[in-house]
Amino acid sequence: MKRFAVVLFVVLAVLLLSVVMAEAKYRIAFVPKLIGIPYFNAMEEGGKKAAQDLDVEFIYTGPVTADVAKQIEIIDNLITQGVDAIAVAPNDPAAITPVLKKAKEKGILVMTSDTDGAQDVRDLFVNQALQNEIGYTVMDELAKAMNYEGEFAIVSCGPTAWNLNIWIAYELERLAQYPKMKLVTIRYAEEDVQMAINVMLDLINAFPNLKGVIGQCSTSAPGVAEAIEQAGKSGQIVATGLSVPSMMAKYVKSGTVKSFVLWNPIDLGYLTVWAAKYLLDGNQFEDGKEYEVPGIETKPKYIAKDKMLVLGPPKVFDASNIDQYMFF
Amino acid sequence: MEYILECRKIFKSFGGVQALRGVDFTLRSGEVHALVGENGAGKSTLIKIISGALLPDRGDIFYMGQPVRIDSPRKAQEIGISTVYQEPLVYSELSVLENIFLGREIRTPWGNIDWKREEEQARSLFASLGLPHHFLREPMGELSVGLQQLVLIAKALVYEAKVIIFDEPTAILTEHETERLFTIIRKLRDQGVGIIYISHRLEEIFRIADRVTVMRDGEVRGEFPITAVDRAKIVELMAGKLLVEEIARRGVKGDHPLLSVQGLTRRPRFFDISFDLFPGEILGFFGLVGSGRTDVAQTIFGLFRPESGKVFFDGREVSFGSPEEAMQAGIAYLPEDRKVQGLFPIQSVAYNISVTVLRELVRRLGIVDVRKERDIAEKHIRELNIKTPNLKTRVYSLSGGNQQKVVLAKWLSVTPKLLILDEPTRGIDVASKSEIHNLIAHLADQGLAVMMISSELPEILKMSDRVVVMHEGRITGVFEGPEKTAENIIRAATGERMAVAGGVGV
Amino acid sequence: MTNTGFRKVLRRREFTVLGLIVLLVVLFSLTTERFMSVSNLSNLLLQLAGTAISAIGMTMVIITGGIDVSVGSTLGMASVVAGKLLVGGYSPFLVLLSALGTGLVIGLFNGTLIAFGNVPPIIVTLGMMSILRSLMYQLLGGRWISGIPPAIRVIGLGKWLGVPISMWITVVLIAFFTYFLSSRPLGRAIYAVGNNPEAARVSGIDLRRTTLFVYAVLGALAGFAGLVYVARTGIVQTNTGSGFELEVIAAVVLGGTSILGGRGTIIGSLLGAFLVGIIKNGMVLLNVPALSEGLVVGVLIILSVMIDVIRARGERS
Amino acid sequence: MKRVLDYIVENRVLFLLVLFVALFVVFAVSVPGFFTFYNLTNMTQYGVELGLLALAEMLVILSGGGGIDLSVGSMLTIVAMIIGVLIGRVGLNPSLSILLGLFAGAGMGYLNGVLVSYTGILPFIVTLASLYIYKSLALIIAVDPRFGPNPMPVSNFPESFYFVGQYRIAGIPFQVLCIFIPVILLLWLLLEKSIFGRYLYGVGSNEKAALFSGINVCRVRVTVYTLSGILSALSGWIITSRIASARPDIGTGYELQAITIAVLGGVSIKGGEGSIGGVVLGIAIITLLYNGMQLAGIHQIWQLGSLGVVLVGSVLLNQVLLARRKI
Q1: Fewest CB atoms less than 10 Å from the CB: which of B469, C244, D270, D274?
Q2: CATH no. for residue A161?
Q3: So what family is this one in (chain A) (predicted)?
């Protein structure tokens, strides 16, 4: 009994202490879709930089695979820990709603970043670029590289990745403007470069008239480019898509990839933490206003009706500018 | 050097139990030395020590006059001591050839296995034993158990064994296979091999052994040239008391047959089987393994569908689709191979006894009445004198005889009308055997109909009121009263072919 | 005698799988002209190399009655080590040794716990899988490895006589281990251990050493497969090799190796890997919707095993 | 003291209990926010879905004959999709949809069971095949024509649907109190007290002896696989309600985790041995471990590794202690 009392005392003391310590700095958490991939690493880097500049505590934690259920569990535990703000890149925009609602009820600032979700609950969405603009830009880049005609394929990643599917939908919408282009198939290669290579090699064989391909995510874009080079089709088939410069540079330089699309994820991470601090400090964003954020290269714009802060237009990387962005 | 193998004052204990208390044992080259004793007498412990599976606590072993330390089965084999186990330890998926040579391959200069020379050697070996050798490349699993055992003997010879231990070799052999084995053992003896022979069947020992050592309670109770003892003396030393070979029966045979089988056929196993079985009667079924006895019993029990023929049970025609249905009608079947078909080794004693009667213990919604379950188990443990620490003891830790009693208890607990016993006393010690015999007689006296399959002629003669003899799937004789003689039965049962399994005949 | 010998071949499970492969090849060649093209077949071989190399070791492990679900993460770990060293500019030979070594150490660790710790293989390797994944994340820290120097990539991409070099290596490995399993005493001991451990112990086979050996070999082979992976893709990501274990196990099991132990051949596993590979390849060529790929693979697995079962029944009666 | 230790080593359930208490005390002392009523009740919900799958795995493994169900994750997924599509896209009554989903789970489990029992194909192969098949079907069901040929999650459920996964009674999550605990009690009754449980252990420890004892081996096995399907379906329903979204990728990789937990709980891979108490403790330990480590701010990466260490370590420790005792 005595020992139990001692244990209880220690526990209470630790609890109290942690509460006191928590008061010292804002604790801002960012939960990516998954950890251990270059894209979110870049966001983490940006977040860390912002935390240093703004003197807040930055917590970066997420599931090791893009697992919705695990992500929710992690957010729930962040609520238990009593952080001040949670920003999420949700694996499923709807699934995230209940737990974010709970966070909000506990007085936590709730945001989404990179991918939107829980629109009626979250306080802010930090958006890298508008969904339709991303889809359109990718399609335009492909069309330009293919000289506006011929067959092309899409190699996507997880067949259920929500934002990839949305982008594909916008790409197809844009396709209407290019009547001489034809989509032959959509294939899935998970988040796995080797699988993307395999799938693309099979596609090259299956569709001899293939002229272009979209690698829909950061693993499939270098994968399809690699496959084209392995098959010796560089120059006949062009690849584009969404990926990070450090992995695409090789293919841009060899000409297999003319251009590809992304944004600056370091800036996105920075902006997320900056915006959280801004709101925690009691500030409000104004509609249509472009903000000057020290440390990032674009001027983010606030759209009040969507409670959305947009980093900027999607960025097109090609041989002319890729060397400046090799750090992510 | 008088003895090829000599054990002096061997002691061995497990936990607190003293299994061997200063055992002396000797073996000459060119003799068959029988080792007898009840289960738990220490035979197997001694054998395990000689074959390297166990190390003695104290005592010395001399091999060819030199002290040796046999610390592994491999070591034993290397110095020339081989063991043929009761249940042959084989690689069923590998070829006969590999079963012989595995662990001691003949190699080419490159270190590869030299299949050709292995086959040559095996062929000449088999020829010298008078065995055919066309099946050397077949998987071992396709051979009959008897043949497998002969292959293992050949294996011992490949190891140039000077001592071969036979651990109850005939327990799973047919009469005919046993004869074949004895011929080979005599041949080996004449070649100068020392043979240790363990068996529960005393009649065999008188036929094959030169010397006999009797053990009881971890000690040697006597060692004699075989000509200097008789059966009664050995039994007395083994059991400490004389066993009666006659059994008292009250003879309360009913008027109407409980089971009536007419023209039952399931090709190629058995053809046109007809017999009646009355309440209170023990009907013996004799025949070689593979003669179809077990198949008839299992077909009646609902494990197989017959092609034609009728079965009447308790006055009406039946055709059971599963053992479940047969049991519900009142038939119990004690299977032949208790380890494989009878026991749930990792479950408790209580579980094993009550599992067949659970349906009667169900109260509501499929929930079992645990108290009744325990009562039934306790009752049978008492009645069959099963030696177990408690009800929850897992069955695998009991001795062979007690395991067999547990299986029997399992079938008795259902209080059937017809009890089919398939080799009820195979491989168990004399005392337990006798207890089980008495129990069977007692049950029949209470009006139970018993169908008893056995390969042991003495058992059949002792127990049965009538004997049905089968050969190659057909009934070749039914004997009763004064006609029920060993000579008649053997004549009906023997064909000149050995049992054939998996298409490999000998 | 030859007649029964031939019948025995027909009865083998490998034959069923081979039959299915032939059937599919005919089907695909008739329906798409692209299937029989050199480039497509060469692709197929390229894609299969990693699976086939690991399947050699997995076959041996399963023959002993064991299983290794950590093979995917072993491959991943080895490719992380190889990738790091390659980018660091170390000699390809050293890289080869360290990839093999990484796999070997992992295999030895698995084997030691299984053989000497008496822990069931599924538990050891499930645990190992999580531990390795954890270490891989830690080593990479989320940064993927790219920019693998071209010298090493010959293993993954180069061709000799029109056949990928990785496939030549695979063929050599398969030939060697088939010979090893059929003609070397230790090879036969692997079957013995899986078929009847008790008998193996009595006939003087060192069970522990044999067990340790098969896991070590599988580890080393998975390590080598990791190197082939790096050489092929030129990129090492954190989840390299995830899900690979089921692919390898499926190939081995489909190829007729009994998961109860004691039976199986490497050729069978190779055929199993081919069957799955051809199905996937054919479905792309026929442009069957990607989502139903699993449906077809699953149904074919059941079908191919079912054919065996039915035939075995037919023979018995 | 030594005898107490011996007893613990021999009794896996007790061993797990000691491990559980030890972990609990360590977390309670060292992790802020752990030892609160809120956290202790809140974390239980994360053990439910995987827990149900582990229980399913326990039943199947117990039935012996190489029993294993690799398809539990896929069955969970497809049931989640069926319920999701029926409610969210077809607009069927939620209760009816859930019922249909559970029936579908039972049906798929039944199919596994029939294939295992009546064709003689090993469970490992049957369920490996159905893992692929059910997963693929889930993807096909999930295709939403409005978004082209892509499978999409479903998330427009009526508020009432969230009751199971998101509501609480006296602070305790509804699904824990009203589904998980009753399921555990029912399974306890089934395994420990009922005739079916007796038969299951019998079939698992010796299939032949069970047949000769008049037990219908096939029926027992088919029942077990069907139960596995039902438990997976329940799990699929709960997870859909909890995360408010039916996803065709939700159960990926759950099968190996479920097997891990069942084995950690002391279920013997050979069948016939293992208890529900052990498996429940296995679930509790894993749930506790994840929660404690997350609250302590330990990197996710280490959580994965620690699962492996706990699994191998606990079994190894048990074996080593057992071996030492024997000498």
Answers
A1: D270
A2: 3.40.50.2300
A3: Belongs to the bacterial solute-binding protein 2 family.
